Amino acid sequence: MRKKYISQQSGVTLIELLAALTISALLIGIVYGIFTYSVQSNNKTQSHINLRQEANLIITEMRKRHQEATANYEICYDELLANELPSKQGLSLEKVSVDDVIIDATHCKQEIDPSKALSVKFTLTDQQNRNQFTIDTVIEGRRNSGSVAVEIEKPDKQSFADYLRATGIFLDVNTLEIKGGPTIKGEQGTVVVRENFNPNSSNNIEIQAKDIYIQGNVNRSKNSFELGNSNNPVSNIYIDGNVSIDKDKDAPPIRGYLQYTGNLDLKENPINSVISHSAKRVDKIVSPSFGNLPQFKDPIQNVGKIIIASYATGTFSVDRKMEGIIFYPNGTVDFKGGNNTFRGIVIADKVYLNGGDTLIFQPLTEDEELPF
Hints:
The chain is α/β, with parallel strands linked by helices. It has helices spanning 2-7, 14-68, 77-80, 85-89, 160-167, 271-274; strands at residues 73-75, 91-98, 101-102, 109-112, 118-126, 131-139, 169-178, 183-193, 204-215, 218-220, 224-227, 235-240, 243-245, 256-260, 264-265, 278-281, 300-303, 306-309, 315-318, 322-335, 341-353, 358-361.
């Protein structure tokens, strides 16, 4: 009887034990692989942020020195690393050139004229995370130099989001038609109008931006407009054409550093009552250029930050409060009026803005990407 009872008891066989161990090992391997990939991805992202921040810091220091210099000076390799952040973060500075002159630990760029624009190129490398960030930009000369104050960082051709972050563009149009008294507000952003700026309104029109590029003539006679920021940062206003401004009773219609390629006609006004800082004629103005536009299946609507992205030639209406990005380079964006507020970025062939409408710059953050 006892032998029969023992023979009926069940247990774990060796095969079952081996199978359980094998499955456990596989699961542990998968979990470890996911964890390792996540850590590497986070490290890569943080490395990109560190590289960008350090590059911006180096350019900021170079710009400050260049624009504050009162005589010719030199730049040496060691001076670029004075903040010691690269070594602490394990970064290395490579392929440094200033005005096409290579500089390294033994060679400096001498006799730099602070009144002229300064081209700067360098690459920051994070060897540990196998990541690089390259700067290719131009630092403007002193404000009183007569040079063209244009600084546009060349973006990564693979990332249109990086391009928008680098230029700060929040309104880029071929034609801007305005009725009533709308407001375009982006103190830290960039506005580009690629054709003549002729608002059709007797109401006051405001365009606030750090950089404003207008291709063509600007005529303030039958309408009232204000270009530039009323507070810091002081705006850079580039007009590739003639500037004609009539008498102003209230505030300066141009607030910032004006550069123009044509003629300046101030009518009856003295210059300091029209332009709050300075005005100078230049030979050439270069506005930001998109270069290679992104490729995507047309159209994209309401995906992430994108409200609409399309290469169509139709009309997209903004008839309520919206937030995001309108990428419509061949089409028309029509703000219907009625005190609508749009926060984000608008890129289009034509934009119609009406009284009461407000366009407010809302930039992409460092970790935001676009779905194309």
